[in-house]
From TrEMBL:
Keywords, sorted A to Z: GTP-binding, Nucleotide-binding
Cellular compartments annotated: Endomembrane system
Organism: Miscanthus lutarioriparius
Highest taxon above the source species: Eukaryota
Protein name: Uncharacterized protein
Length: 111
């Protein structure tokens, strides 16, 4: 569908420049404007399914599913982070300073 061409281009850019395990979410905005809807919910959902990414409709004006969209992304990020191998932590290096501390010059505002 022609309406999804920009989305395909954006996803191509994401695939080109982002890491392989980047989280994606297709968000249909302005779901409160039912009478002037441009893309059918079913078609948008089917498109997202064909790409293997979740879909959610939101309305910033009516505060519909906005928080859910963020929670969906954070949940997915958390799941992906949990399945990644942990980076080996390097041992902590302690630095011991010897000598006298340098005296700070007083400023006009110090008491």
């Amino acid at each position: 569908m022609e309406r999804f061409n920009n989305i395909k281009q954006w996803l191509s850019e994401i695939d080109r420049y982002a890491s392989d395990n980047v989280c994606k979410l297709l968000v249909g905005n302005k779901c409160d404007l039912v009478d002037s809807k441009v893309v059918d919910t079913g078609k948008a959902k089917a498109f997202a399914d064909s790409l293997g990414i979740p879909f959610i409709e939101t309305s910033a004006k009516e505060s519909i599913n906005v928080e859910e969209a963020f929670l969906t992304m954070t949940s997915e990020i958390k799941k992906r982070m949990a399945t990644q191998p942990t980076v080996e932590r390097r041992p902590t290096v302690h630095v011991h300073m010897k000598g006298q501390p340098i005296q700070q010059k007083s400023s006009c505002c110090s008491s």
